[in-house]
Design goal:
The structure is a single chain. With about 300 residues, the protein is an alpha+beta fold. The protein has 2 domains: about 1-155, Fructose-1,6-Bisphosphatase, Chain A, domain 1 (2-Layer Sandwich), CATH 3.30.540.10; about 175-305, D-Maltodextrin-Binding Protein, domain 2 (3-Layer(aba) Sandwich). Helices cover about 30% and strands about 20% of the residues. The protein has a 7-stranded mixed β-sheet, with helices on both faces. The chain has a 5-stranded mixed β-sheet with strand order 11-10-12-14-13, sandwiched between helices. The two termini are about 15 Å apart. The chain binds D-MYO-inositol-1-phosphate. D-MYO-inositol-1-phosphate binds near residues 104 and 247. InterPro entries: IMPase (IPR033942), Inositol_monoP_metal-BS (IPR020583), Inositol_monophosphatase-like (IPR000760), Inositol_monophosphatase_CS (IPR020550).
Length: about 300
Amino acid sequence: SKEELDEIYAFAVQLGKDAGEMLMDAAKVRMGDVGTQEQKEHVQKENAVDLVTETDENIEAFIKKQITTKYPSHKFVGEESYSKGASRHYLIDDTPTWCVDPLDGTVNYIHLFPMFCVSISFIHASKPLIGVINAPFLNQFFSSCADRGAFLNETQPLPLLHNPIPPLPANAPSSCVFSCEWGKDRRDTPDGNMHRKIESFVNMAAEVGGRDGRGGMVHGVRSLGSATLDLAYVAMGAFDIWWEGGCWEWDVAAGIAILQEAGGLITTANPPEDYARAPIEDVRLGSRLYLAIRPAGPSPAETGREGQ
Ligand code: IPD
């Protein structure tokens, strides 16, 4: 019901704030602002670029405990629990599910590049209904709930940039800012994921319109290192397009909730080859490939959907 969802939203927002505070405290220790050298955590390696810190694990344990205490019947899917095999056989199905990345942008956090955050989503009937993203180093707190709008720092409706924004032209995403992540699959094979990403960077940025004359001459090409923040930035209107192949559900669920609530589009397609034809409606969590397109008009929250 509406009341139940409101209560879950309020709980998720508070959880995002508390977990963000934990993340900020841990970052301060990393910076040497507080604590001692001995307190500096060590970094474990899943592989050369897939890293986990004690902060990822501590924050996930905290969030999981809060959720399972308050909502024992809900399913919990967290990046760190999954990596350790605890919920390896989960499916995002009709069960009310919490999908959590306690620290998205772990490499950024390790290097103190400020694009890192806590990312929490609540999913029902396979749809991300609530998204909360707290990037404490940036003072950016994103939140959304189905049909209630998406917000930055709880007061500014998303997208921020709308005057209004025209829709992207189908096959020529010039004049936009494009974001694509490197991901963790760095196999150097000609048809591998990494090469496709490099190709899409080149296609977007090339002076002569990219391969086959499609794409080309975007204003900027970016790579933040946090998939969920990429999606929040598309929801803001700061990025026009984000694309990544190789995502897990916890990398994208909260960002998708926020993006959709801001009026943006999410699909499983490649830029710029087939995004105009992509089936926008049938995007499912569980895909590894996502393409996000920024909202094309004013915020749904500002056009009267809020409070309905
Ligand atoms: C990663 C980040 C990165 C993306 C990877 C993710 P993590 O998450 O979102 O930007 O390229 O696909 O796994 O490991 O920092 O939580």
